[in-house]
Amino acid sequence: MRSLKLAVLGALSLLSLVGCNAGQPKLFRIAIDETPIRTIANPSCFRGNILPSGRGQLSEVNYRKEDEWVIWDGLDKQYLDMGQQSWKLGDAPTIVVSDLIEGGENKIFSAQRNEVKPFPGILATESRQTQVVVTWNDYSSAPSGTIALNAQYACVAGQEQCPNPNPTPDSVSCQSNLNFFGRRIDVSQTTEYNNNP
Predict the structure, then answer these.
(1) Which residues, 6 or more positions from 196, have their beta carbon under 8 angstroms from its beta carbon?
(2) 8 A C-beta contact, residue 118 and residue 124
(3) Interval 157-190: pLDDT, tens
(4) Is-contact 75 87, C-beta < 8 A?
(5) Do the bridges between strand 101-103 and strand 78-81 make them parallel or antiparallel, or are there none, so unpaired?
(6) pTM
(7) Closest CA to 72 of 195, 162, 155
(8) Those residues with Cβ within 8 angstroms of residue 107's Cβ, 6 or more apart along the chain or in another chain
(9) Quick check: 151 and 175 in contact, CB under 8 A?
């Protein structure tokens, strides 16, 4: 009789864990609309405020980048694994995501990278700052949201003036917003995920 009670108790415990997702990661297939990046026609995103030849003539409809993202819970934070990502906004510094992004409060994940180094050949300093902010509307079976991208460049003069025009290839600032749409994938204790499908 006691073994029957233990079996029933074990089954109920298992059911309650399954019902609560048992701490399993949330796995999503994601479609990202990168059209705003591929069709940037803002002159300030390019060196000399000049659009490259032929820029602004590209038109895209319904092309999406496919991805697989995972959100998993830590002790008091959430972590977004969006795999290896790289976004180039015109001639601005490249935005690279190569690690987990911590966040989750209000379904927002934000990360920033700063690089400061001497300007080659003169007494001045270059600063590059890139930021990505991923905002989810919800974690439902068909979620959506935005990816805010911001790449900033600055040259700070020391004893010498920063060159104008600046010969550095990524010497402008630019920002863009992308939309994404997803589908949540049910996972089990044995589900494997690959963040670079």
Answers:
(1) 68, 83, 84
(2) yes
(3) 887 888 888 888 999 999 999 999 999 998 765 5
(4) no
(5) antiparallel
(6) 0.81
(7) 195
(8) 135, 136, 137, 138, 139, 145
(9) yes
How much is the CA Rg of the chain, to the nearest whole Å?
23
Check: CB of residue 82 under 8 Å from CB of residue 100: no
Closest CA to 135 of 76, 66, 71, 46: 71
Whether the upstream peptide bond of residue 93 has omega within 30° of 0, thus cis, is: no
Which of 20-29, 75-84, 119-128, 164-173 bottoms out in mean pLDDT, i.e. has the lowest? Answer: 20-29
Query: What is the secondary structure of 64-103 as a DSSP string?
Result: -EEEEEEEEE-SS-EEEE--SEEE--TTSPPEEE-S-EEE
38-94 pLDDT, tens digit each: 888 899 999 989 888 876 677 778 899 999 999 999 888 999 999 999 999 999 999
* CA pair distance 71, 24, nearest whole angstrom: 9
- 83 pairs with which residues across the strands? none
> Across-strand partners of 26?
71
Ramachandran assignment for 10, one of left (phi > 0), alpha (psi -120 to 50 degrees), beta (any other): alpha
